[in-house]
Amino acid sequence: MTDSVGRVLGTEDATPLSFWVGVDSAAYAQLDDVLTTEREVPGVGTVRISGVVTTVRSRHEGAQFDSDVFDIAGGLLPAQVQEAAEVTVTRVEPEVFVPPTPGAAVERATGAERDRALYFDGMERQVPLGFSRDGQAVFLNADFLDGTRGAHVSISGISGVATKTSFATWLLYSLLNSGAIGAEAANTKALIFNVKGEDLLLLDHDNTRIDEEIREAYRRLGMPPGAFKSVEVLAPPREGDGNGVPDVACRSTGVDAFYWTLAEFCSGGLLPFVFADADDDRQQYTMVVHQVAARLRKEARPKDNGAVAVDGQLLTTYRDLVDLICERLSDDATRVEWAGSAIGLGTVNAFIRRLIASGRDIGRLVRGDLPPRGGAIASEAQVTVVDLHNLPDRAQRFVVGVVLRGEFERKEKAGTARPLQFVVLDELNKYAPREGTSPIKDILLDIAERGRSLGVILIGAQQTASEVERRIASNSAVRVVGRLDAAEATRPEYGFLTQAQRQRVLMAKPGTMFVGQPELPVPLVVNFPFPAWATRPAEAGSAPASSARSVTAKVDPFELAADDDDIPF
Predict the structure, then answer these.
(1) CA–CA distances in Å: residue 290 to residues 29, 285, 339, 404, 407
(2) Euclidean distance between CA atoms 79 and 59, whole angstroms
């Protein structure tokens, strides 16, 4: 189904990849409209050329000077207002790449014709993304999200305005509830790291602000409006609490505390994640970290409640462990065994200073006063939220690194890509910066390069894609951009945007995203629906019975794995 817009201009070059349309006075063309035209090619037949409007202009024809506009408006000079639209070609059928003929009729594509122009007709598994400016549904090919033909999502935008986290959770909701991956959705898992406030801790609570218009938007996209049905929240123990009660204020059910016992810390070689800052990548320094970790793995003996004994000395707190390491490194008789013979005293002292400083950040996460727990990570919940917002930066890096390593190793041992494991991580530029190395960055690189084959899919969000490791960004099949600042928008990482879109992202409103996917040469502008789940305590309605569990239970994500934002709108 189509309606007339105008004709191909003859005063501007028309190429097989773009052309200009003179808009009829009785019609209009706006950015993101899908237009189509035809050309008869000898020996081939009718070639249909379709594309997306990327620029629209309006001007007086017949005017020579800028001041003529006043005389024209007063009727003193003859002139005609003419609008024209630039169309970037998205699809040519059959694939005979010829330019459209000047004067050829151009129509607005709707219905099945629009679906063909945007390749929606070839998407056997459509993941709803939201709506375009004309109010029609926009889809993502699930093949580029679940690892079939590609994987990983990169989301960029200004903090608090671009709604990066809201879009990431919306994408997960759409994938799990749209039927795009069929029965596989029931077993698909999601691991979300919450780094800002408690906004993501209420995903299983209905949003009391949604109205019938929002519900209808969900229904138009083929999904029921509502909250996530199966959510488990992991939070760090409260500071100074000996019982491991999770440090969460906004909810009292469906919450468990996460921690690591001293025995797990030593046997799992977790010490490098205490020094996971990319600034600490000097070779000598790294050698001390790994040498000490190896020594702890060899000498630490597990005791009750996760404590350890080293050379007969019982350690029950992280501070005890730090004191023992410092003692061994300060003693001339044991320094070589614990640090290595090629390490100078200055390097050892630098390691000791940083290790002592880590005590106040890591102490409540690594303990010898709570029993270890077993099983699969968190619980049988479909969505697991790991809350980091109450932790200092060093502790956040430690948790992210250890949990990601545990999940990746679990998938490697499983040897199969199914069920899928999605990982949502904000502030990706902090954990995988372009410069430097760190244990977390190495894991994220592994996920980006090998995660597709293992069924581990990264949905990474960052304010500035230009500061994220290139190999991670280049392995993202789907790239999403919200509002950017002017300097960032000019960086080559956003080269997939058209020139006009680079200007538009400077003024994009919350809820508007530019989505690039491999099948389409032009990113599509999407407005995604208001979240049907609570994004803050004031919006929280009831939670499903599946999430109504006591906060007294405790879960240790590392042990479990080893066993085989943004405010929207």
Answers:
(1) 62, 9, 9, 19, 21
(2) 10
DSSP labels for 475-519? T-SEEEE----HHHHTSGGGTTS-HHHHHHTTSPPTTEEEEE-TT
Q: Domain range spanning residue 176?
A: 126-255+374-562
Residue (of 555, 529, 564, 560) closest to 173 by Cα position: 529
Closest CA to 502 of 518, 521, 517, 487: 487
Q: How does pLDDT run across 417-469, given as a tens digit for each residue?
A: 899 999 999 999 999 998 888 889 999 999 999 999 999 999 999 999 999 99
* Whole-number pLDDT of residue 104: 96
Burial profile 303-337: b = 16 or more Cβ within 10 angstroms, e = fewer: beebbbebeeeebbbbebbbbbbbebbeeeeebee
DSSP secondary structure of 255-270: EEE--EEHHHHHHTT-
* Final residue before a domain boundary, out of 313, 336, 367: 367
Distance between CA atoms of residues 350 and 288, nearest Å: 10
For residues 427 and 547, membership in a common domain is answered with yes
Q: Which residues partner with 411 through β-bridges?
A: none
Looking at the structure, tell me whether residues 63 and 109 fall in a common domain.
yes
HSE-CB of 163 using CA atoms within 13 angstroms: 23
Identify whether residues 428 and 529 lie together within a single domain: yes
Please check the confidence at residue 281 and state whether its pLDDT lies above 80: no
568 lies in a domain? no
Choose the weakest-confidence range: 101-105, 186-190, 250-254.
Answer: 250-254
Greater confidence, 284 or 470? Answer: 470
Per-residue confidence band for 337, with pLDDT thresholds at 50, 70 and 90: confident
Residue 439 CA to residue 275 CA, distance in Å, equals 8
Q: Are residues 542 and 412 in the same domain?
A: yes
Our count of domains for the chain comes to 3
Looking at residue 558, what is its pLDDT?
Answer: 37
From the list 509, 480, 505, 507, the residue with the least C-alpha distance to 568 is 509
- DSSP string of 83-137? EEEEEEEEEEESS---PPPTT-EEEEE-HHHHHHHTTGGG-SSEEEEEE-TTS-E
Could you tell me the two tokens for 240? 């100074």
Distance between CA 64 and CA 535 in Å, rounded? 55
**Pick from 275, 300, 302: nearest CA to 289:** 275
State how beta strands 18-23 and 105-109 pair: unpaired
Which token pair is 392?
């200092």
Q: Hey, how many other C-beta atoms are within 10 angstroms of the C-beta on 378?
A: 24
**Tokens at residue 356, please?**
């002592």
Is residue 567 in a domain?
no
398 with 474, same domain: the answer is: yes
